[in-house]
Design goal:
mainly beta, 1 helix, 9 strands, 12% helix, 51% strand
Length: 144
Amino acid sequence: MIRRSATVCAFVLALTLGACGQGQSAQSGPQIKLVRGLAKVEAVEVVIDPSDTEKAQIVARGYLADGCTSIDRVQVNPGRGNLLVSATITTVRPADFACIQVIKPFEERIAVDLGDLPDGTYAVEVNGISHPVRLDSASGRGTQ
């Protein structure tokens, strides 16, 4: 009797799982339009790892304007001259959605390899917000 019940349960489960998604394709349903933008960055700082002075992190803090907006991607471009790194943080949200109006803070960390950079004053930039970084081997590599 137990064996027959187990067989019936397995058959019902197989039918149920097999019916899921029948007649539907990945393209069915309404397409949601997305709005992309730049994240509002309020502060940028550089944190140099004291145990490995060739590694640092750029810490970007800011906020998202509503409950539907999220970080889309972080694009990092190598800088030129005294600009060490230039980064862009973009956002995405569904268009035409009614979203709760709350300010959501965010923090993004971007790894940077300081490698063989000579001592000097550099800058990092995230969404137009710049932060200076002074590299000085005599004082432990990084100062701000």
